[in-house]
Write a structure and sequence with these properties.
With 93 residues, the chain is of the alpha+beta class. It is built from two helices and five strands, in the order βββββαα. Helices cover 14% and strands 26% of the residues.
């Protein structure tokens, strides 16, 4: 079971030692974490063995990983909900 939870900041270390920072959008029942690596709404499925939890740095909080996915009114990614409520997706909110 993954110790990661929604909102955690992580560093992904790839098989060639390349690293990328992101934020956990959700964790599946099987422990795979879905991580936002950019300011967009999409999240990549990641093996938790390649993720290391890190303390958020000021630039990470300013970057805005995941657009509105971490706002209170957007509790989890659901395409239908995002299309209805997110202004970036054409919604009224």
């Amino acid at each position: 079971m993954s110790e990661l939870k929604r909102g955690d900041y992580v560093e992904f270390v790839g098989p060639f030692g390349d690293a990328e920072f992101g934020r956990v959008a959700s964790v599946a029942d099987n422990g795979r974490a879905f991580v936002c690596f950019s300011t967009g709404c999409t999240a990549a499925a990641c093996d938790p063995a390649h993720l290391r939890k890190v303390e958020p740095r000021a630039w990470m909080e300013q970057l805005g990983f995941g657009y509105h996915r971490f706002d209170d009114e957007c509790p989890d990614y659901y395409p239908g909900c995002c299309a209805a409520y997110c202004p970036e997706k054409g919604g009224a909110r």
